[in-house]
Design brief:
Largest sheet: 4 strands, antiparallel
CATH topology: Alpha-Beta Plaits
Helix content: 25-40%
CATH class: Alpha Beta
Number of strands: 4
Distance between the termini: 19 Å
Structural class: alpha+beta
Order of helices and strands: EHEEHEH
CATH architecture: 2-Layer Sandwich
Strand content: 35-45%
Number of helices: 3
Number of domains: 1
Length: 111
């Protein structure tokens, strides 16, 4: 089953590095970087506001546990964000590409 994973990073450079590390480990098939996201959140008893980069990664259910275990070591945040959402449906060719790519195959180019 295809999963969409949401993560944030403090800068474009950190986001690109993290995305490449996840791709090289075949934990994800694709990562979209969405720059200049403004995040407001509670931290240490106060509301904080930061500019971040949102990472939208596509993977398969079989890779999620490994992603959860390795992300804290790769990420600069004390508590990195990782939300995993299930994909109910999609273009079959794209879902097949995600499955193949996250499992180490290279079936072609997609976006």
């Amino acid at each position: 089953m295809t999963k969409v994973c949401l993560m944030t990073c403090p800068s474009p450079e950190v986001a690109q590095t993290l995305a490449r590390q996840l791709l090289e480990r075949r934990l994800v098939a694709c990562v979209n970087l969405v720059p200049q996201v403004t995040s407001l959140y509670w931290w240490e008893g106060q509301i904080q506001q930061d500019s971040e980069v949102l990472l939208v990664a596509k993977t398969v259910a079989e890779r999620v546990e490994e992603l959860k275990s390795i992300l804290p070591a790769l990420h600069p945040y004390e508590v990195p964000e990782l939300l995993v959402l299930s994909v109910e449906d999609g273009l079959p060719a794209y879902l097949g590409w995600v499955l193949a790519s996250a499992n180490g195959f290279s079936p072609g180019k997609t976006g």
